[in-house]
Design brief:
Chain lengths: ~400, ~240
């Protein structure tokens, strides 16, 4: 019954493009800006029979306490083939402890053969190291993993064009990947709260990390305007949702409150009594709490309108069992978040949509918001189109579109 | 001014221009039989803006086996050796419209790229593509599909060309979902009917393959080939990865 082609690949027909897209220049500009902010990242397509070769640059606490533990506990085939630090002694000490090779020079065969390059150094030093890597080897098939905020200040941010020369760039926005926030995102994505109206970060979520977290719960909308009232910063997404950040930042010693059209959610960390009080008054539909036995974290408890769930602490415990790991709960959550970030080199997850343009964007927007408050500038809603344009121009410059 | 291109293969056409045209996969007699069944099936329901016939309903109607034929398998295998289905349905859209039936209210006259795709992906590779088969005649007033060769790596400027794909019943083509495309308005009084199958690499985010309609259909497939099982997300099927 079906037509049988003789050789389908040879039967491709010519195409005649006989029309043009007739959109106004403003629509085209808007389209291009929007397209650049959409960052569904690339995963590492490869035959997973061979482990991915990972090269580390840096030897600070972040490498020691987060990256190396994460790489040892990630459920992906990887091999750490080298570590380089400006001070060789530091790299060697770290390498000896974790059983990896320290490199005297950055420009080494281990770097040349790496599939993934991880850079965790001061933001000011990033451009120089990136240029050295680019000068030494072809990076078009390498994935770069770099810490937020990626660059420091507007001067170095113009180095963003280098990032476009990598196969993909993953920015380590660990905070939004903390397991508790992942659970919250699941509830929102399944529609448990309906359309989100308010996200309140009370003393949790440092500046751009907090903004990234809030935007991740909403699918990364852009911020239309920002205002402040005392210690509260209000971000308006223009989609009927307001993000409120209460200062000062106290790691996880605060709470996260989400109000949607269909329900409310409270994430209530260990010792935050106000939020416990709020919860005990029955003011929320979903309550996520950390569970402890004898001061040892045992997992999360989620109370929902239909019952309660317990999420185990298996990975948490496996990370804390590492010999060189400082047994700090917040640091363990960071490492769990980092595992999610690195996993996006292998499979699609929330980080696949959060690249360096979004990282820079959250940095600009949050810093400008805090800057206005610090310097007592007028308490007015401030459109941040300029910030968006700046972020996007950097990205375009990086893509070669403006060069 | 018209721009005519002559790609050497379906794959080249898809990666370079975002679209590939080729001779029909299904003959007129076959499609007529499908349409007879679909007319009867849709007759009982009230006419909506869009009517969908899902993959499990296609199976119940005895159409799915004919869709997933060897020609199709040969074609898809030549493009992606770890393909998993993302869409598999037939739908029709109402007529007498003044704007595109999908994304018609966006600021870009319906032009869009499918948001659930992986962007910033490799140039010259395809990760998400759809097969369209027109099940009714489509001319310029019947809502022809329109696509531009604008990939995610390029800027939209005033010189970007496009093609409205017109053709009789049975016309089929592939397009890359990350290229800029749109549905044009179906101005005619006739509903436009299309078979749509979308594929993407295994391992990419795919919430649809776990929908009951796909799970149920997979369980009821009769003597499926390894390739077809893989399209339905069969985990046990070994695949090799492209270079």
């Amino acid at each position: 019954m079906q037509t049988k082609p003789n050789n389908r690949l040879a039967q491709c027909l010519p195409i005649t493009f006989n029309s043009k897209i007739k959109l106004s220049w403003l629509s085209r500009l808007k389209f291009n800006l929007k397209a650049r902010m959409q960052e569904n990242g690339r995963i590492l397509f490869r035959d997973l029979k061979d482990p991915a070769k990972v090269f580390l640059v840096g030897s600070g606490n972040r490498i020691h306490q987060n990256f190396l533990p994460a790489l040892h506990r990630i459920n992906q085939p990887i091999e750490i083939t080298g570590i380089y630090s400006r001070t060789f002694q530091h790299a060697r000490e770290l390498a000896d402890g974790w059983g990896i090779d320290a490199q005297q020079k950055l420009e080494s065969p281990a770097l040349e053969n790496a599939d993934i390059i991880i850079i965790s150094i001061t933001a000011q030093s990033v451009p120089e190291v990136l240029k050295r890597i680019q000068n030494f080897t072809d990076t078009s098939n390498k994935i770069l993993i770099v810490d937020t905020p990626v660059f420091a200040g507007l001067k170095t941010v113009f180095s963003s064009y280098i990032l476009r020369r990598f196969a993909n760039v993953i920015v380590t926005e660990d905070y939004m990947n903390f397991p508790q926030f992942k659970h919250i995102r699941d509830i929102i994505e399944k529609g448990g709260l309906g359309q989100i109206k308010t996200i309140q970060l009370n003393h949790i979520g440092y500046r751009y990390h907090g903004l990234a977290l809030a935007r991740s719960l909403l699918g990364f909308p852009l911020i239309k305007s920002v205002s402040y009232q005392g210690d509260e910063i209000h971000y308006d997404t223009g989609t009927g949702c307001e993000i409120i950040v209460n200062e000062p930042y106290q790691k996880l010693n605060g709470y996260l409150y989400v109000k949607g059209e269909k329900g409310t959610l409270l994430y209530c960390p260990k010792k935050y009594l106000d939020s416990m009080l709020l919860a005990s008054e029955g003011a929320v539909d979903y309550l996520l709490t950390e569970q402890y036995e004898n001061d040892v974290f045992t997992g999360f408890k989620l109370m929902t309108p239909t019952g309660s769930n317990h999420f185990s602490a298996d990975l948490f415990n496996r990370i804390q069992s590492l010999v060189f790991f400082a047994k700090d709960d917040f640091n363990t959550f960071k490492t769990m978040g980092l595992i999610e970030v690195i996993s996006s080199a292998f499979s699609y997850n929330i980080n696949s949509r959060y690249g360096f343009v979004n990282g820079l964007y959250d940095n600009y927007v949050s810093n400008l918001a805090y800057g206005r408050r610090t310097f007592g500038l007028p308490v007015l809603k401030i459109p941040y189109y300029a910030v968006k344009v700046l972020s996007v121009l950097n990205a375009l410059r990086g893509s070669g579109a403006l060069s | 001014m018209n721009i005519e291109v002559h790609p050497n293969s379906v794959y080249e056409s898809l990666t370079q221009y975002g679209v590939a045209l080729f001779p029909p996969l299904y003959n007129e007699q076959c499609i007529q039989q499908w349409n007879d069944k679909l007319d009867r099936f849709l007759d009982n329901g009230e006419a909506k803006k869009r009517n969908y016939v899902s993959v499990d309903q296609l199976q119940e109607l005895g159409i799915l086996d004919l869709i997933l034929n060897e020609n199709l398998q040969e074609l898809i295998d030549s493009l992606m050796n770890d393909a998993v289905l993302y869409h598999c349905h037939i739908y029709d859209i109402e007529g007498e419209q003044t704007k595109p039936h999908i994304h018609g209210d966006n600021s870009f006259e319906g032009w869009h790229r499918d948001v659930e795709c992986l962007y910033a992906a490799e140039k010259d590779k395809v990760h998400h593509f759809s097969l369209f088969v027109y099940l009714t005649d489509v001319d310029s007033d019947n809502g022809p599909f329109e696509i531009s060769p604008l990939s995610t790596f390029e800027m939209l400027n005033r010189k970007v060309p496009s093609i409205k794909i017109k053709g009789g019943c049975g016309t089929c083509f592939l397009f890359d979902r990350t290229f800029l495309h749109r549905a044009t308005a179906n101005k005619s009084s006739i509903r436009r009917r299309v078979l749509k199958l979308s594929f993407q690499n295994k391992g990419l985010f795919n919430e649809r393959i776990l929908l009951p309609e796909f799970v149920k259909t997979k369980e009821r497939l009769v003597n499926p080939s390894v390739g077809v099982l893989r399209w339905f997300g069969e985990e046990s099927v070994e695949v090799s990865y492209a270079d």
